[in-house]
Amino acid sequence: MKRTVLFSLIAAGLLATGSAFAGTATTSFTANVNIAQSCSVSAQPIDFGSNGILADTANGVPGADNIQVQGGVNLYCTAAMPVTIQVQGGGNGGTSEAVWKMVGATNGGTLGYRIYQDAAYTTPFKLAGDQLTVSAVVGTQFVPLYGEILGSDNSYVGSLPVQPDSYSDTATVTVTY
Fold first, then answer.
1. Residue 66: what pLDDT?
2. Is pLDDT at 42 greater than 90 in this prediction?
3. How far apart are the first and last CA of the chain?
4. 100 lies in a domain?
5. To bridge 151 with a disulfide, which of 16, 55, 132, 157 should be the other Cys (CB 3.0-4.6 Å)?
6. What pTM, to 2 d.p., does this model score?
7. Spatial CB neighbours of 110, under 8 Å, sequence gap ≥ 6
8. Which domain holds residue 159?
């Protein structure tokens, strides 16, 4: 008897639960995304390293030859497209349109340097912000920039060389696509 009542209660519960669902309805949805043409940019530093006396033969100062190094800009683009890279002169200004200034951390002295668009060191970026146009590829692309310190760009008091210090400057890179 107990089994019959228990079975009857379970069956009644299932029937009551089943009767709460009168039917079904179905729909669908879509997932969308639009990937726009875009680029991100990062820069590798122009690091001239540690050096001694810079040569300035025009002023009779012996020393190291011109110091030339390479840094650059890393582009990451979602599409192959023309990209304009603008490099604007550092925050310390310059002594001419093509000669930018680094400032010493301790003595406040200055050291002139140049940034070029080409490995031949013939096309400088000017302080006002010259542009270099490249054809970006899909994915990562490295665009080299070339730095140079010329002894003749740096002023000397009498025949004194540039004073020992850690010199730096910060330039701005803008990418337009």
1. 82
2. yes
3. 84
4. yes
5. 55
6. 0.74
7. 92, 95, 101, 102, 103, 104, 154, 155, 167
8. 39-176
User: Does residue 31 sit within a domain?
Assistant: no
Taking only the tens place, the pLDDT of each residue in 60-93 is 666 666 889 999 999 999 999 999 998 887 788 8
Confidence (pLDDT) at 9: 47
With tokens 């530093």, the residue in question is 45
- 3, two tokens: 């089994």
Q: Using CA atoms of 93, 98, 104, 105 in order, give the dihedral in degrees to the nearest 10.
A: 60
Structural domain count, the chain: 1
